[in-house]
Amino acid sequence: MRVFAGTPGTATGLFLRIAQCIFAAGSIASMASTHSFFNFTAFCYLIAAMGLQVIWSFGLALIDAYAIVQKKVLHSPVLISLFVVGDWVSFYNSISISRLPYEIQSSFVSLCLFKSQILY
Description:
Elements: H1 11-32, H2 41-70, H3 77-98, H4 100-119
Helix pairs in contact: 1-2, 2-3
């Protein structure tokens, strides 16, 4: 298997996983620093999703660091498919939950417009 930048077990992959972990932790910190974030269910779900992202990224960063120190290659098809499916699940989890406030607002506005049309 060819080695691309960012593949598991490379220094670039380790850097990207650490950056992913730091940005997820930063988003948790920025949301949790507000006084009333827990009043909004969407933000609570987003904090939970980012918490899972931190755990996933940190675990894979540890695996990358171990592979670099031991000079092991992490290019087995089973490991690559595990990384791909795990990243795919965490990506769609984060995207779907981050769209939740917009969807709630959109449905609320359309409901208000629908009710206002019925009243007139």
